[in-house]
Design brief:
Layout: H1 5-30, H2 36-61, E1 77-84, E2 89-95, H3 100-119, H4 127-146, H5 150-159, H6 161-171, H7 191-223, H8 228-234, H9 241-258, H10 268-274, H11 277-302, H12 304-331, H13 335-356, H14 359-390, H15 402-405, H16 407-420, H17 428-440, H18 443-446, H19 450-475, H20 512-530, H21 533-546
Helix pairs in contact: 1-2, 1-4, 2-3, 2-4, 3-4, 3-11, 3-14, 3-20, 4-5, 4-6, 4-11, 5-7, 6-7, 7-9, 7-10, 8-11, 9-11, 9-12, 10-13, 11-13, 11-14, 12-13, 12-19, 13-14, 13-17, 13-19, 14-16, 14-17, 14-20, 14-21, 16-19, 16-20, 17-19
């Protein structure tokens, strides 16, 4: 089929999607001495251009009926160039119904993080370096979501590690203690804690990447190609069931670290707790999606027999994560760490949905993936604002009655919590519902654990409601002046409504800038909750093609 000029321009826009943030990051690193606000404005401009390119590429690739990797029409938009001819590796990028939502989510979240830095900046200095790392993470993530070659996928997947290490180690919170100091040593904060969290993040993810690389090499050698479109069309042909099972084990283990799957999640809470607000937003909304996206993009279509063989184990660990993380949230005393642990539970639904290998389950996994990025991104923005004002995220030290003291922050926190617990009408509801429904009908993949897994996952939604409502009861409700700073006085000597619990000084509510940054996530949460078809109609045809059906 001949390609129109619009198709050619659209295909090259995929390369621009990756290059614009990476080149902008390089420019910010080279040009030193920029004022913090100027660097943040440059990052915001770059992220705006990237979002515009993402929207244009998505519109060019539409409609998504019949488009999908492994489908007869291939991806809706692709760029396929020679890269390493001696190895048969091509620079193959593509956009279809599976990748479009995550490309748009990544572009939106990066823009909001850069815009947030215009007015709210870390104390660690050189904002230009932080913005450069944010843009580098965006470029690597977009490359991962667009990659249609196993080697390109792996290279892009690894690109995000170094800049995210710097985000945590250089601009992380100075007040948090290290997670696991040596026996008898004091729990030091500052640089020791930041490097502890950053090193843990890199150690876990590099170990997972090594396992994933072995799985990718096994597939590439056994099939004779690294092209994901061709591999998806073969649906495992040429790879015997034993090779598929070994490859699936390696790939799932490697990707599950980034997902994160229980019990491989222990890098996540310290990374989230230490990371600056923007870093936490990117960790939750972008980096966790790399692992779950890899499961859907690579494992499901390329080694379907292997995944089916280990699906009960993957589903069981997904459910274990839902229940364990939910129970851990009951006793967690740090609000930011609590939101991080809740991510383990929510991503458990994604893993369960993938393990079902049903249209409903995979649709639920993809929907929950996007919804989690939107909702948790909002929650980390709000919790970061609360922490900036109180200099702590300890629940016992935060004042109650946010509803009255800081109403805008209070309402944003309440909205995010209600979305996070899966309230019908908000984005968090549909993905978890579809994952549970898929598990209930997944006898062929999950076997005897199918319905017990569905029931236990449903119990997990109840646990989430309880711990998030506990947070709201403790922080949102309560009479004015009932919290730890009830004795603190405002400048005029009035009761300490809005007083800083550490210094006793009066603090203000969310600024107009902070509300403007959070507003797109609020609107997206409502839109996905009330109109889930806007996402399901994009991913649905590609999911059906991936499972061997018709769009």
């Amino acid at each position: 089929m001949s390609r129109t000029p619009a198709d050619v321009v659209g295909a090259w826009s995929l390369a621009a999607l990756v290059l614009v943030p990476l080149l902008s990051a390089l420019a910010l690193l080279v040009v030193r001495g920029l004022a913090a606000r100027t660097a943040a404005l440059i990052g915001t401009a770059s992220a705006t251009v990237t979002l515009a390119l993402a929207v244009a590429a998505a519109l060019t690739a539409a409609p998504f009926d019949g488009h999908g990797v492994g489908g007869p029409g291939g991806p809706g938009l692709d760029l396929n160039l020679d890269w390493i001819p001696a190895l048969g590796v091509r620079l193959h990028l593509g956009l279809d119904g599976i990748s479009v939502p995550l490309v748009l989510l990544t572009a939106v979240l990066t823009l909001l993080v850069c815009a947030h830095l215009i007015r709210v900046q870390p104390t660690a200095g050189r904002v230009g370096g932080l913005v450069a790392c944010v843009l580098a993470v965006e470029g690597g993530a977009l490359g991962t979501f667009l990659a249609l070659d196993l080697v390109v996928f792996f290279v892009a997947f690894e690109t995000v590690l170094v800049p995210m290490w710097f985000v945590i180690a250089r601009w992380g919170d100075d007040t948090q203690p290290a997670s696991n100091p040596p026996s008898g040593a004091p729990r030091l904060g500052g640089e020791a804690a930041r490097r502890d969290a950053a090193n843990r993040f890199v150690f876990y993810t590099v170990t997972g990447s090594a396992l994933m690389l072995l799985g990718l090499l096994l597939v590439a050698v056994g099939s004779g190609t690294t092209d994901l479109v061709e591999l998806a069309q073969r649906r495992g042909a040429g790879l015997d069931s034993g090779v598929q099972t070994i490859a699936a084990c390696l790939l799932v283990l490697g990707l599950a670290v980034k997902a994160p799957m229980f019990p491989l999640h222990t890098w996540l809470p310290p990374a989230h707790t230490i990371a600056p607000t923007g870093g936490s937003v990117l960790l939750a909304g972008v980096l966790l999606k790399l692992g779950t996206y890899g499961l859907v993009r690579v494992v499901v279509p390329v080694v379907p027999e292997g995944l089916r063989a280990i699906a009960p184990v993957l589903g069981a660990f997904g459910v274990a994560g839902i229940l364990w993380a939910g129970l851990a949230c009951f006793v967690e005393r740090d609000l930011k760490r609590l939101i991080a642990l809740s991510s383990v539970a929510h991503m458990g639904f994604v893993l369960l949905g993938v393990a079902t290998m049903t249209p409903e389950g995979l649709q639920g996994a993809l929907f929950a993936n996007v919804a989690h990025g939107v909702i948790t991104g909002l929650l980390f923005l709000v919790v970061g604002a609360v922490k900036d004002r109180h200099h702590t995220a300890e629940l016992a030290l935060l004042d109650r009655n946010l509803r009255d003291r800081l109403p805008r922050l209070g309402w944003l926190l309440a909205f995010g919590a209600l979305a996070g617990l899966g309230l019908p009408g908000l984005a968090g509801f549909w993905g978890e519902l579809l994952a549970i429904a898929g598990a209930w009908r997944a006898d062929s993949a999950l076997g005897v654990i199918s319905r017990p897994a569905a029931v236990l996952a449903a119990i997990g939604t109840v646990i989430a409601a309880v711990y998030l409502l506990r947070v709201l009861r403790q922080l949102w409700h309560g009479p004015v002046g009932s919290g730890p700073s009830a004795e603190a006085a405002e400048p005029d000597g009035a009761p300490g409504v809005g007083a800083d619990v550490i210094t006793g000084r009066f603090i203000g509510d969310a600024t107009g800038h902070e509300v403007a940054v959070a507003a797109p996530l609020v609107l997206a949460t409502i839109a996905l909750g009330l109109l889930p078809a806007i996402l399901l109609q994009v991913t649905g045809p590609a999911v059906r093609l991936m499972l061997g059906g018709t769009p």
